[in-house]
């Protein structure tokens, strides 16, 4: 019994009181699981052009999307989460902007204006989840330092742009190319602060779904989301989705920089289902790559009161690192039985998948529902965290505790 | 006209005082040093956000990272008082 209680105690008791109708700047709703200081400082605040979001830090701007916006297939641009490491964020002028493509393993360096990108290449669109590696870090036990995100450092959007591989082909990729590095226009305040440069293995940059995107949900890419163009790396965590893209370097060796070699690392073999990044792996660690399977209830929260005997529809979303969602299941205890939720429209394997589960609460008292998603690769959410120093890949089975009566 | 109405609505939607100047760190010895150093690169809400779960050694690691990795030009004699303040005002007791 003790064992069982501990087991359930480790589930993600995501019990964020729905922030519907709260005023901007109002006191935050209770967020069980977050550090107390993160709850107090997580006020609603609006960046220019954005809806009030949950402010994690003003500068660099880190703002989390409230739960209410996840009850739809695509996350509105003005409610989409904002994440920056560095505080020097220029307003990039789209007309004078140039994308530089070169590097030691490029045949010949090239430069493209936004017009040249738009008119010189086939345009494609992909629906894809952008999720911060540290989404739900604040719910880790024990807590680890970093931005104390709850559930909202993610969003799903339609990204439109051109294939990265088509752009690289114009500069020419030499046979010895190992990685491609990406630098955005944002910088640290101090010259000594490592610039945020990310790299990808060649197989990922040549993937037809990896884009240089300049539209988001049918609009020009908004400033806070990387105007005028950003990298879109479907299936991989958003640390690679470099914003305000300025230069691309095709490299004959592994890129050596703080944000690849030291940050965004995981214990090797901790997440066997994740995509490989062999050129950056060390003996003990490897970079974070593809997202793990996950799900979220989007129309109800723990502590919510429901009427006995009245049918309810629980809605949610599920996503993974690009295999697509095979099923979402609901149970009243870990022992099951696990009942299938109904999956919504399939917007592609990089999008999240909406689901719904109809349910009639029984007698008065408390009612627990557990939710778990399974990907087409067979990966399933579990009930124990996989420990890692930076608190990445939090994807515990969610427990929804309703009050009946 | 329509634009003016839209603009007015937009103004209403902007929360008052939604900026980092509202952040008040707790009283305590070393607070001025913390404010003067940390504010160069980031808003001070990073400190309360990361509380209360780091002990003195945990805050020491954070400050060391800011110096060694992020290049924070903190004078060596100020490091001790800064870590002591963070541990006292935003730390959990060791053990």
Report on this structure:
- The complex is a heterodimer of chains A (405) and B (95).
- Chain A is mainly β and 405 residues long.
- Chain A is built from 6 helices and 25 strands.
- Chain A has helices spanning 2-9, 36-41, 114-120, 164-171, 202-205, 258-261, and strands spanning 44-45, 53-57, 62-64, 82-83, 98-102, 110-113, 123-131, 154-163, 179-184, 197-201, 211-216, 219-220, 230-232, 245-251, 265-267, 285-287, 294-297, 305-306, 312-319, 325-331, 339-340, 342-343, 353-359, 365-375, 398-404.
- In chain A, the strands form 6 sheets. Chain A has a 5-stranded mixed beta sheet. In chain A, strands 7, 8, 11, 12 and 13 form a 5-stranded antiparallel beta sheet that branches.
- In chain A, a hairpin with a 2-residue loop joins strand 11 and strand 12.
- The longest helix of chain A has 8 residues, at 2-9.
- Chain A is globular and about 70 Å long.
- With 95 residues, chain B is an all-alpha fold.
- Chain B is 55% helix and 0% strand.
- Chain B is globular.
- Chain B has one domain: Cytochrome Bc1 Complex, Chain D, domain 2, CATH 1.10.760.
- The model of chain B is unreliable at 1-17 (pLDDT under 50).
- Chain B is built from 5 helices and no strands.
- Chain B has helices at 2-13, 31-38, 46-49, 56-68, 76-90.
- The A-B interface holds A 23-25, 35-38, 40-46, 51-52, 55-60, 87, 142-143, 145-148, 188-194, 258, 262 and B 13-20, 23, 40-43, 45-46, 48-54, 58, 61-62, 69-73, 90.
Q: Enumerate how many helices of chain A there are, as a single number.
A: 6
Going by CATH, the architecture of chain B would be Orthogonal Bundle
CATH homologous superfamily descriptor of chain B: Cytochrome c-like domain
**How much of the polypeptide of chain A forms β-strand, as a percent range?**
25-35%
User: Average pLDDT of chain B, to the nearest integer?
Assistant: 85
Tell me the number of helical segments of chain B per DSSP (H or I, 4 or more residues long).
Answer: 5
Give the end-to-end Cα distance of chain A, rounded to a whole number of Å.
27 Å
CATH third-level topology of chain B: Cytochrome Bc1 Complex, Chain D, domain 2
Oligomer: heterodimer
Structural class of chain B: mainly alpha
Q: Largest sheet of chain B at a glance? A: none
Number of strands of chain A: 25
**H/E topology pattern of chain B:** HHHHH
| Major sheet description of chain A | 5 strands, mixed
Principal-axes geometry of chain B comes out as: globular
Overall mean pLDDT of chain A: 93
Give the overall shape of chain A, derived from the CA principal axes.
globular
Q: What is the spatial order of strands in the main beta sheet of chain A?
A: 6-5-14-9-10
What percent of the residues of chain B sit in helical stretches (DSSP H or I)?
Answer: 40-55%
